[in-house]
Structure formats: structure tokens, C-alpha cells
Amino acid sequence: MTRLILVLGDQLSHDLTPLRDAGPDDVIVMAEVGDEAGYVPHHPQKIAFLFAAMRKFATQLRDRGLTVAYTPLDDPENSHSIPGELLRRAAEHGADTVIATEPGEWRLIRALGDLPIPVTQRPDERFLASHAEFEAWAEGRKELRMEWFYREMRRKTGLLMEGDQPAGGKWNYDHDNRKPAQADLLRERPPTFEPDAVTAEVLDLVEARFPDNFGRLRPFTWATDREGALKVLKHFIRHSLDEFGPYQDAMLQDDPFLHHSILSPYINAGLLSSLEVCQAAADAHAAGRVRLNSAEGFIRQIIGWREFMRGIYFLEGPDYTARNILRHDRDLPPVYWGKPTKMTCMAQAVGQTRDHAYAHHIQRLMVTGNFALLAGIDPHQVHEWYLAVYADAYEWVEAPNVIGMSQFADGGIVGSKPYVSSGNYINKMSDYCGSCAYKVTDKTGPKACPFNLLYWDFLMRHRQRFERNPRIGRAYATWDRMDAEKRRVIRAEAAAFLTRLEAGEPV
Ligand code: FAD
Ligand code: DLZ
Ligand code: SF4
Questions:
Q1: Is 225 within a domain?
Q2: Distance 261 CA to ligand 2 centre (A)
Q3: The domain that contains 8 carries what CATH number?
Q4: Would you say the CB of residue 436 lies under 6 angstroms from ligand 3?
Q5: What is the per-residue pLDDT for 1?
Q6: Secondary structure, 3-state, 56-73
Q7: Is the pLDDT confidence value at 44 over 90?
Q8: Ligand 2 atom nearest to CA at 7
Q9: Is residue 408 in some structural domain?
């Protein structure tokens, strides 16, 4: 009997079990559909990257002798939904069962479960921790902290382990990191790829079909197959990993990539495995080419944070993206869609996002995320923005980062404190403030940095919740020691700023 095997756009790995088991009677279903391309207004580079990678992956499957029913976006028969395409292909091929790898989003998991033909959703084995393992680890813990989970993953993988002890005697070398960076014209940039014929055709399609989505489509320089992704990995390990640790929190104008790997789109889409990436980093350290704090910091992001975030998404359930414990309800302001702003930090982070469908972690957390949290933006709107604009964004990883880590909308499941800061942090870690219309050292007055005003305003709005938080509570004592008139002015100027923001004025 014919089986359909579903391969989604972010499941482009030959060794997923449904593909490993696939035989000559099976039909592999892949589809470019309006529903997936439209649940948020994805960045055009993200859509083009996935469609080009899907088309090339389908060719590789056919080269393996497998039958692939591939629906391009402009196929007149396209039903424009994954369930619709499965039903259409089932009728066409007389198939009576579907084998899928579990999607990374509750929406699709449910949609597959609701199909009128039997669907088996197999575990996504690209992750180190299964749902059951994460649940067992989380069971009975008062707080879920990434650091403890990460140690389990180190033990499980043996990465940077000496017997049962961590290499160098410490699990975490973050203390040696967090340096600001200097402009350096000679810094290696990630490799870029000229669009080949498949990619060029997809670029024309995306240009025609998604003309209004935020983000520049060209120049399009992503790799769109495993071979290219491996080149990016090799280049990163050779040229950037050694400096990754010290400079991972640094931000520089017009230097969007610094020492970051730019590997997340490839790992998340399945072109690279998370374990092979980490093994390459561990091997480079073992060969003496990469310092321990860099290798450890990089590996922690992947087997620690990435796996932890996925665990939280599935543990917390489908309502996670609706959480809003701080009851923030302001609309996402136009600056997030590239409208003019006087804040250099926001202009840089959003501008790089528009140009590359990429911003690195600290820009996402401490610039755009920090601003949204301080300004009291509705976290669901913030979530939809992040899900749309980054080439690596899928709900299983984006939502815990945004709803949890960045917006504290889950009430502290991901992080024990809200990631808020005044302009001082941004100034310390970047070269943004020197060329800003605002003055980072001004706490009040016409040029006061908005982050300075909003920081105190946020803390005061949420005093009851955070005053006793050991990681942020001390700020309240500083506020209380401040001159009463200064406190009044800060609150009044913050309110005036928020009014201008709400009115859509360029701030
Ligand atoms: P590097 O800095 O080189 O890090 C190496 C790898 O570590 C990344 O490729 C990624 O696989 C992993 N990683 C690092 N931090 C995290 C993290 N917090 N969670 C999960 N994986 C991590 N990452 C996504 O993959 N998709 C998202 O949609 C996403 N949304 C985010 C939203 C916010 C508000 C924040 C604060 C972070 C988000 N991240 C997301 C995490 C992180 O910012 C990106 O993984 C990283 O910037 C990708 O760039 P890179 O490959 O150059 O990473
Ligand atoms: C993100 C995305 C886009 C833009 N388009 C498609 C598509 O047309 N077909 C497809 O199979 N997958 C696409 N994806 C990825 C899915 O949205 C992703 O598989 C789910 O959100 C689960 O992570
Ligand atoms: Fe951003 Fe404030 Fe620095 Fe301007 S002064 S770049 S708004 S932190």
C-alpha cells in the first residue's frame, strides 16, 4: 500500500527516520504553500532560502531513486495548505496513510492530527533531548534553569568532557567573554553564495508574490544546500570561532556578523546537524586551534540554549505564545518595520534585519527585545515580528526566546529576571551611542536616551513583581535614593516619550 511521507521546509535532513525508511512504493510530499508562507509576513530572504533549499533537496531525493510529489507555489492545482496537499496527493496516488516527522509548531501538529486519514508523527530525532527526556528532567524542579540542563547534555554527548568532568575543570566560561569589539576592516565575513539557476528562479517568484513583505530580497547570498552550509561551517570554525567567545555580546555599526557563525538557518532547516556543528567546534579546540572559552560558549548555545528552548516550547503547550503576564498592550511601533528613528541602536538592529534577515543574539535581546519590553509592547505582536523577520525563525525556538527570555511574558519560566537595561549596557557593548541623536549619559532632558527613561519607568510600573527579585531588586534601592524631583521628571518624560511612540511619531 502506498504511504505518503511528508517533508516540511525545515525538515531537509536525509537521515530523518521517515526518509531513512522510505522505499520505492512511498511518495514523498513536499509543498510550497500559501498558508506556510503567509502565517506571518516572512522576510523575503527567508521564503526564498527555504523554497530554494526545498527544491534542491527534492532533487537529491529523486537522485536517491525516491518518488517526490513536489508542489511549487505557482502550481495551479496547489491547495495552499499542508493538509490540503496531503489529501490531494493521497487521492492522486491511492495512498491511505501519512508518515511525518513531528512539526516544530503546535499549529501544524494539530492540523496533521485532524486529517481524515491516519497520520503517524514520528519524533524529530535531530534534537538531543526527546520530549520524554526533557519532561523527566523538568519533573519536580522548582525552577528550570538552562545551566543544569546543559550539563546533562554535555554528559550525554561527551562534548568537551574529560571522563565525567568538564574540560578545563569548569562547565561554563562565560565569565571570560562579554568584551566589546573594535571596528576591524580585515575581520573575516561569512562566505556568500551567488544564486544558481534554482535559486534565481525562486528569487523571481518571491519578488513577484511577496512584494510588500518587510525586508530586502537582494542581494541574496545564503547557501541553499548542505554543501554550501558545510562551507559556511568550515569557514566559521577556521576564521571566527576562536574569537566567538570574547566578542559574542559585542555590537558594531555596519558589522552585522562580527564573530558569529550565521549557522542557525542551516541548522534549523536541517541542512546541518546540531551535533556535527558542535563536534567540529570541539575538534578545533582539541587540535589547539580554538580557545576553550570560545568552543564551550558556542557549544553551550546549541546543546544548551537551543535544546532547552525547544524543551520549554513543548513542555508549556500550545497556549505559550498567548502569555502576557505583565499585561503589556501597546502596539508594535513602526520603527520595527524600518520607519525612521533617531535611536542609532534600533536603526542598526532593524536595518540589519531588513538587509540580511539576521541580527545576532544581543541585538535581538538587548536592543529590539529590550526596547519592546521597556515600552510595554504586546508580546504577541513582538512574537509575530520575530517569527517573521529572521531567516532562522520557527515557533519552537523563536517563541521561548521572545515570549520567555526577551519579554518575560511567561512570568519567569525561561529566565529568572527580565532582560532590561538602560542605555549604559548598549553603550558599553557597542559603538552605537557616539553617533546617536540621543545622549546616553543624559538621564533626563530633551536628549535623554529613551532606554534610560523607560528603564526606570518599567521598573516602577512593575515594582510589586520585581522588587523582591534577587537579580534586579537592588535597582529599587537606587531609585529610592534618587532626588524626588528627578524621579518625577523621569516618569513624566517617559510618559511623554510613550505618548509620542503611540502616536507613530519618529522617536
Ligand atoms: P551564533 O551566535 O553563532 O550561535 C551559535 C548557535 O547557537 C546558533 O546558530 C543557534 O543555533 C544557537 N543559539 C544561540 N543562542 C540561542 C538561543 N537563545 N536559542 C536557541 N538557539 C541558540 N534563534 C533561532 O534559531 N531562531 C529564532 O527564531 C530565534 N529568535 C530569537 C529571538 C530573540 C528575542 C532572541 C533573544 C534570540 C533568538 N534566537 C533565535 C537565538 C539567537 O539569537 C540566534 O540563534 C542566533 O542569533 C543565530 O545566529 P548565529 O547562527 O550567528 O548564532
Ligand atoms: C517557514 C516556511 C515557509 C515560509 N514556507 C513553507 C512551505 O511553503 N512549505 C513548507 O513545508 N514549509 C514552509 N515553511 C516551514 C514551516 O512553516 C515549518 O515547517 C513549520 O512552521 C514547523 O516548524
Ligand atoms: Fe540607543 Fe540610547 Fe545609545 Fe542612542 S544613546 S544608541 S538610543 S542606547
A1: no
A2: 23
A3: 3.40.50.620
A4: yes
A5: 80
A6: HHHHHHHHCCCEEEEECC
A7: yes
A8: 11
A9: yes
At residue 222 the predicted structure's pLDDT band, cuts being 50, 70 and 90, is: very high
Tell me the ligand closest to 343's alpha carbon.
Answer: 3
> Does residue 219 have a cis bond before it (omega within 30 degrees)?
yes
CATH code, 141: 1.25.40.80
Residue 175 has pLDDT above 90, yes or no: no
How much is the pTM? 0.98
Pocket flag, ligand 2, residue 31 (CB < 6 Å): yes
CA of 272 to the centre of ligand 3 (A): 37
Question: For residue 108, which ligand has an atom nearest its CA?
Answer: 2
Regarding the beta carbon of 405 and ligand 1, being less than 6 Å apart is answered: yes
pLDDT tens column, 183-199 = 888 899 999 999 999 99
Beta bridge partners of 28: 5, 68
Among protein residues, the one with the nearest Cα to ligand 3's atom 3 is 433
Q: For 398-440, write each residue's pLDDT tens digit.
A: 999 999 999 999 999 999 999 999 999 999 999 999 999 999 9
Q: CA angle, corner 445, sides to 440 and 451, nearest 5?
A: 40
Whether 375 shows a pLDDT value over 80: the answer reads: yes
Q: Is the pLDDT of residue 45 over 80?
A: yes
Centroid of ligand 2 to alpha carbon of 179 (angstroms): 37
Residues 13, 155 share a domain: no
Mean pLDDT over each residue of the chain, to the nearest integer: 97
Task: Give the CATH number, domain containing residue 391.
Answer: 1.10.579.10
Helix (H) or strand (E) holding 138: helix 131-138
Residue 326 lies in a domain: no
Q: Is the CB of 300 under 6 A from ligand 1?
A: no
Q: How confident is the model at residue 174 (pLDDT cuts 50, 70, 90)?
A: confident
Q: Atom 42 (ligand 1): residue with closest C-alpha?
A: 361
Q: Is the pLDDT of residue 177 over 90?
A: no
Task: Report pLDDT for 239.
Answer: 97
Assigned domain for 348 exists: yes
User: And the C-alpha cell for 140?
Assistant: 519536580
Reduce the DSSP state of residue 166 to 3 states and report it: strand
User: How many domains, the chain?
Assistant: 3
Atom of ligand 3 nearest to the CA of 436: 4
Helices (H) and strands (E) in the chain, counts: 24, 7
Confidence at 208, pLDDT banded by 50, 70, 90? very high
Residue 354 belongs to what domain range?
A: 334-502
The verdict on 64 and 185 lying in the same domain is: no
158-to-161, 166, 272, 274 alpha-carbon distances in Å: 5, 9, 19, 14
Atom of ligand 3 nearest to the CA of 426: 8
Counting ligands in written order, the one closest to the CA of 438 is 3
C-alpha of residue 41 to centroid of ligand 2, in Å: 12
Domain boundary among 253, 285, 315: 315
Is the Cβ atom of 394 under 6 angstroms away from ligand 2? yes
CA-to-CA distance for 16 and 22, rounded, in angstroms? Answer: 10
Cα dihedral: 457, 459, 465, 470 (round 10): 180
- Residues 138 and 116 occupy one common structural domain: no
For residue 249, the ligand closest to its alpha carbon is 1
The reply to whether 253 and 295 lie within a common domain is: yes
